Amino acid sequence: MIQPELRKVIREAAFAGLRWPLVVTGKPGTGKTCAGLCVADHVRGSNWWTWDDFWRFIADVNFGRATETRGGEWNQEGGYREVSTSVTWTPKKFWTSFGNLSLAVIDDVGLRASANDTQYEAMKTALDRREKIPLIVTSNLDLPELGKIFDLRIMDRLASGTVVELTGESRR
User: Fold this and answer.
1) What number is the average pLDDT over the span 76-93?
2) Within 13 Å and on the Cβ side, how many CA atoms surround 149?
3) d(CA 72, CA 26)
4) Which of 10, 34, 99, 122 is the most exposed place for a label (fewest CB within 10 A)?
5) DSSP-assigned beta bridge partners for residue 84
6) How far is Cα 86 from Cα 69, in angstroms, rounded to an integer?
7) Pick among 2.60.40.1180, 3.30.360.10, 3.40.50.300, 3.40.640.10: CATH of 4-166
8) Which pTM was predicted?
9) What is the pLDDT of residues 116-129, one digit of tens each?
């Protein structure tokens, strides 16, 4: 389901040393999200977020509101029992975990006309933590448009990787 040209670039990024991040741009419906999800599904230890979910989670982390409840476990008798363990994410814990992922995918970056401070810091820190290691960023916007939303430093960090523009009609 991934466009052949993008499939080739993904392979080259994974095995031939193309520069990260991999930035995939193009009109809605050209297969950016599908590609990001497919790659994340095939890479153990990866995570995929929409941009809005990502930066909002970072806001929750920064304000001490980000918790994760972990579920059950197998007991010695071979049965399953519910265990309620709650973990609170701290910025240090989250960014360390984010930096250690095999692959991070952030989908649909730049849905708004401007970025607030939390959005800016989330994007900048994500790009800095994943410098030269596997990160896929997708957007309906090209790099200059993303530069207008964030700034030239973000645009430069994105441009330092591999940029692919998907073309064609909507595949929906």
Assistant:
1) 75
2) 21
3) 42
4) 99
5) none
6) 4
7) 3.40.50.300
8) 0.89
9) 999 999 999 999 99
Single-letter amino acid, residue 88: T
**Amino acid (one-letter) located at 6:** L
Rg (CA), the chain: 18
Tell me how far apart the alpha carbons of residues 161 and 35 are, in angstroms, rounded to a whole number.
17
> Does residue 82 carry a pLDDT above 80?
no
Long-range contacts of 82-89 (CB under 8 A, 24+ apart): 88/64, 89/60, 89/61
Q: Hey, is 50 helix, strand or coil?
A: strand
Two structure tokens written together for 94: 């989250």
Place of tokens 């304000």: 63
- Domain ranges (residues) in the chain: 4-166
Rounded-to-integer distance, Cα 16 and Cα 30, Å: 25
Triad 144, 149, 150: Cα angle to 5°:
95
